[in-house]
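# step 3/5: fold
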Amino acid sequence: MSPKDTPLHIAIIPDGNRRWAKAQKLSPWKGHEKSARNFRDIITWCSKNPRISTLTIWCFSTENWKRDAAEVEKLMEMLEEYLKEERPTFHTNRMRLVHSGRTDRFTERLRNLLQTMQEETKDYDAFTLHLAIDYGGKDELLRAMHKLKDTSAVTEEQLRTQLDQPDLPDLDLIIRTSGEQRTSNFFLWQSAYAEWVFHPKLFPDFTEQDLSVCLEDFAKRTRRFGS
């Protein structure tokens, strides 16, 4: 299989939910609700696209805990609701669910639901949905280092085994919406040779058609991996 035929691991940083809500004169979580509806459509589109094997979505960062407590609580409720509602779909479509990030700050319900669904879907191979929740790149690397007994001569291979999802392929394409042009502590290890697209639309307005255009742009690029 040539590199151009290798299934892709793509990621989305869904920026702009609160700005979208503000522009609509709505409460912040209305932007998140519209974003959640977008995710359902995009996940379905990606799962049916033979070019994509894995979709990573950054749902909540380690820094997002600094937000208003009511907004954080609403976000966590929405994540739990999504998992409950879509649980049968994962089995019907043989989709694997995996999670990166901390779990010690979740509610017990959300933590148990994530663990259960990961266990239930671990043998599915049609498509992988990778949710980054309470995730930060520096935090992941620190946690990985703490798992190693001897770091004096650690190799890349040894460190990789201690990452949250070491079996996932490295990221090929990362799309950040809302026009923000920074990497923001996002999968520092796995994005080493990723291509980036900084899309101007706020995420609640981002569509499958926009994603398709991003993939077309990616296909035109030449990836050198340092060579």
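# step 4/5: annotate
Helices lie at 17-23, 28-48, 69-92, 108-121, 137-147, 156-160, 208-219.
# step 5/5: archive (pending)
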